[in-house]
Amino acid sequence: MAEVLINILGIATIITIFSLVIVMVFKMDRIKQLEMTIANLQKSLDEMDEQAKLIVRTDMELNKIQEELDKKITGLYALQRLSRTISTTLEENQIFKTIEPDYLEELGFEKACIFLWDDIAGKFSLKMDIGYFEEELKVIQEAVDGDKNIYLDLIHNERAMSSATLPKSTMLREKISQEFKVRDFVIAPIIPKEGNKGLFFVGTLNLDISLTEGDEELITIFGNQIGQALENARLFEKTWRAQQELENKVEERTRDLQMALNEVKIISRRKTDFISAVSHELRTPLTSIKGYASILLAGKLGDIPEEVRLRLDKINRHSDELTHLVNDLLDISRIESGKITMKLEPQDIRNTLASVIDLLGVQLKERQIEFSSNIPDNAFMVLADATQINRVFINLIGNALKFTPPNGKIIVNSRKNDGQIQIDVTDTGCGIPEEAQDAIFEEFYRVDNLINQQVKGTGLGLSLVKHIIEAHGGRIWVTSKFNSGATFSFALPCA
Amino acid sequence: MSLTVGIGLSKAQDPILAAKEAALKARSAAAEEKISLAIVFASTKLSYPTILKTISAYLDDCPILGCSAAAIIYETDIIKEGLAVMALGLPEDIYLNISCIEGIKNKTAHTAGEELGEKLLYGFQNVRRDLSIIFSDGLLKDSSGLITGMQARMGKSFPIIGGGASDNLAFKKTGVYFNHDVFSDAACGLLLGGKLSFGIGINHGWKPLGKLRRVTRSEANIVYEIDGRPAAEIYAEYLSSSIAELRKELKRIFILYPVGIYLSGEEEYLLRNLISIGEDGSLVFQGAVPQDCQIRLMIGTKESCLNAATHAAEEVKRDFLGKKINFALVFDSVSRYILLRRDAQKELQIIKEGLGKDVPLIGFYTYGEQAPLRATNYQGASRLHNQTITILGVGI
């Protein structure tokens, strides 16, 4: 029984051991699998960590670029805003005032100054400063003047200089850093085409700012902008001065002209007065001469021989002409000096014309000249002085008669024009050369032609007519072609 | 009496003019109520006691808390040179205590924190305590110690929120404002109690990268060994540069690639900024990195940063359950400002929209933020954070 039991136990043990071995084998496999999984996980984790490093490095790179970009964009914004203000500033000192610390900070700097080279004084003068104390500026000014050749070279070569491009620990870089008390800096030339050139300095003590070539470019552009603005301001100043000068000159000339005009007026008045006086003085003896000649001619002092009569006739006739001349002169001077005032009344020019034709009818017939007139119903009433307007017609038609050869024509037309009545006296005479057309209205002017050499005249008629018309507030002019007649036109106010 | 809030800003260069302008703006916005407290942030150039004296003179001689800032946040604007004031008129049933601790370097940050906590608790025996807001010198070596110290007195779960004072990115000297004084190497804070409601949102948006590694030897904010190797060696490996080169570019790198401490249950890693690399190959961080904790290298993008801001604003809103937010303070890491650069304003617009356009908001760009953790297993304990956008919303 015991044996059986032992056998069974033995078999059971064997089975158990066998099963345990099987389980162990399976477990071992599982452990191996797990170990492998762990190893794989570890590997993945390590790889992931390596990837993380890669990501961080890429991110760092990107951030650096981003930072640079941001700095540039901020700088450009600042620059743009500054340019806008600067380019609209037309006063030199105001330009420097527009550069404020805020803008500078956005460009990444906290210290700045601008020096302009004064050619005459032979030194730099400080125009703007930010971030320095007065004592510091004195030292900087001395240093800049002391090393002026370095800075003048910079202006001359039109090239900027900065701690970004100057190699580290060069003498020059150290020197500038020390002189301006900064760590990093950019110095850009300011080169306006007009006037003093200069330099624009910016700097920073900030250790975090790494200056790049981009910064140098930006500040160079800014320097150019300042130069451009200075140029504009100077040109503006120049133009403004020139204009001011011109205005002064115009004023001066106007004053001179005014004075000259006054003088002319005075002389003209004196002339008028003189003529008036002389005419009066002439009239008295003329009246006597004519009176005595008439007495002699009338034979009141006894008979006179035929020879003497002829001479006396001449004296009589010439005295008349002279009286006529003196009267014309007197009238002109009276009108000029305003001694005669026009009595303006509505006048029917048809009546005036009729009386004038009546007066000149014999001569027209003698010379076989045809007279016609066309005065429409809407253009015959003018506002004028009756006596004076009569003289105008006598003179104009008389002139036409004088210069029109036999079988010629004289025509008088009238029409309404702009609230005035225009009257044209046209003849078929020899005409007036163009160059003389203005002068004929002047006193004593006579066109040099054959008729004038034969026919006597004073050269006062047209002048008198012009004076009369102008005293009416009207105007007179002539249109003519040499050898094909002339038209004298004048306009008078409508009645 | 209700809680009144008025904010004012000035960009004037003259300290007195700037203080007057900002204070008067805040005054008129606060509807002429009596002012019980002013919170002030000013750029380094204006960071002088005169501005504090002027501000309190125009605001009922109220107490002042605040600090210097690399840049000020005012609504959705970023002001590099200027001064912002938030004038608060608190209802009578809200209790306020303020205090300050100086000369932190002469003791440990932990003891300084304990002292500050003690002072703030003074007179608060039978009042419900709501939260503490603190401003500390952002250049302190061990800002975490300050918080653990405060927690030792005020309770581990007591919410402490605030930011590290910053300067003009020179990392040389910051100022903490307490009444009429400007202190360096100091921290100031306020304790609010009564029936305030508040909401806190904190996020950074940085994502982990690479292997999870273990800090094998560290002491407070200094990490000596990671995975048994010199810490700096491992950090440099990721950035493929020599340790010497790393030292040179540190300022740029620490912003972009901080170290994240893994906290189980927390949505995001707790970030630590690198401040310097020790001669012995150790890494010096802005906050504590406990031994045996697990860390990873972190990477941030503009997009993830902006998403974090959306998230933080949502968290504040969620805490309020639809109630009115009276005002908000924003502690935004200066690192985010540097990373986002021209998009920095977008972040503020996101916050403003998230909280509601009518919520007055000021803040500043910090050197480190303090805020509670959210996961339940940390019981709301506050920690020092880096690179986060931290928003505090306060209402009644």
Describe the structure.
The complex is a heterodimer of chains A (495) and B (396). With 495 residues, chain A is of the alpha+beta class. Among the domains of chain A are: 87-241, GAF domain (Beta-Lactamase), CATH 3.30.450; 341-493, Heat Shock Protein 90 (2-Layer Sandwich). In chain A, 61% of the residues lie in helices and 15% in strands. Chain A is built from 12 helices and 12 strands. Chain A has helices at 2-87, 92-97, 101-106, 134-146, 148-157, 171-180, 213-297, 306-337, 349-366, 386-403, 450-454, 461-471; strands at residues 111-118, 123-130, 161-162, 184-190, 198-204, 345-348, 370-374, 381-384, 409-417, 420-427, 475-480, 486-493. Chain A has a 5-stranded antiparallel beta sheet, with helices on both faces. In chain A, strand 4 and strand 5 form a beta hairpin. In chain A, helix 9 (349-366) packs parallel to helix 10 (386-403). Chain A is elongated. With 396 residues, chain B is an alpha+beta fold. Chain B has 2 domains: 4-203 and 303-395, no CATH class; 207-299, no CATH class. In chain B, 28% of the residues lie in helices and 36% in strands. Chain B has helices spanning 15-29, 49-58, 109-121, 143-154, 231-239, 243-248, 250-256, 302-320, 334-340, 344-355, and strands at residues 4-10, 37-43, 64-69, 72-74, 77-79, 83-89, 95-102, 129-137, 160-165, 176-178, 181-183, 186-193, 197-203, 207-219, 222-226, 229-230, 259-261, 270-272, 274-277, 283-285, 294-299, 327-333, 361-366, 369-372, 382-385, 389-395. In chain B, strands 14, 15, 16, 17, 18, 19, 20 and 21 form an 8-stranded antiparallel beta sheet that branches. In chain B, strands 1-6-2-3-10-11 form a 6-stranded mixed beta sheet, with helices on one face. In chain B, strand 17 (259-261) and strand 18 form a beta hairpin. In chain B, helix 3 (109-121) runs parallel beside helix 4 (143-154) and helix 8 (302-320) runs parallel beside helix 10. Chain B is globular and about 60 Å long. Chain B starts with a strand and ends with a strand. The model of chain B has no long low-confidence stretch (mean pLDDT 90). At the A-B interface, helix 1 of A face strand 14, helix 5 and helix 7 of B.
